[in-house]
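FIELD: query
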Amino acid sequence: SVQPVQSGGGAVQAGASLRLSCAASGYGTCPYSTTWYRQDPGKEREFVSHIDFGGSPSYADSVKGRFTISQDNDKNVVYLQMNNLKPEDTSMYYCKTRGVSVLQRCRDDRGKDYWGKGTLVTISP
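FIELD: result
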């Protein structure tokens, strides 16, 4: 099984930058995609960014132009570079991975979602 491990959260002031990491050891050479979400208590989960195994990124309008998602496929680490942070970015950030390969050796993880435990990001005004 896969257990994504997150790091990089913290408390900074508006305008600062943070880089979140999502390490997903366990896939080996099996391809997977990664999605970043954020969620505040009592509110719905919000999509932030996504990257497929080929490296194609997508972003929520609220973070477009400020956040950049990237990946190191050899290390199985996905990064979310967050620049010009705003107080409204304050949230718990989660990464979720999903296996995408039909190969026999990768089939156990295909279509399965694995969630990180979350990283708290706090932006003060």
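FIELD: remark
The chain has a mean pLDDT of 96.
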